[in-house]
Amino acid sequence: MANKRRVFRVAERIRDVLAVEVLKLSDPRLELGTITSVMVTPELRLAKAYWGVSCVPEAREIRRIEVQEGLFATAPYLKRVVGQELNLKF
């Protein structure tokens, strides 16, 4: 089990990698999406990314659905990139 400081550092590193990769993707659905935070389990096996949408309140629900679809479509690619960047066991 990792200590709290390491868990926090790994979560921040995952958030940084995801944020950069989402910006690099050419999927127009992800333009207004932002990775806000990442929570990692103490044993560093699972990570859960949180995201948000920045747009006018009237269009927020429609954009939220589009961003969600875009993130689900690119999830395998994002998982692979995070795994390559972090070089962790799991």
What's this, in brief?
The protein is α+β, with helices and mostly antiparallel strands and 90 residues long.
Helix and strand layout, with pairings?
Layout: H1 4-24, E1 33-40, E2 47-53, H2 60-86
How would you sum up this structure, described in words?
This protein has helices at 4-24, 60-86; strands spanning 33-40, 47-53. It is α+β, with helices and mostly antiparallel strands. Strands 1-2 form a two-stranded antiparallel ribbon. A hairpin with a 6-residue loop joins strand 1 (33-40) and strand 2. Helix 1 (4-24) packs across helix 2 (60-86). The chain is elongated and about 45 Å long. The mean pLDDT is 91.
Biggest pleated-sheet summary: 2 strands, antiparallel
Number of helices: 2
Helix-and-strand structural type: alpha+beta
Cα end-to-end separation: 13 Å
**Rounded average pLDDT:** 91
Q: Helicity level, as a percent range?
A: 40-55%
Percent of residues in β-strands: 15-25%
Overall shape: it is: elongated
Uncertain stretches of 5 or more adjacent residues: none
Keywords:
2 helices; 2 strands; elongated; two-stranded antiparallel ribbon; 90 residues; alpha+beta
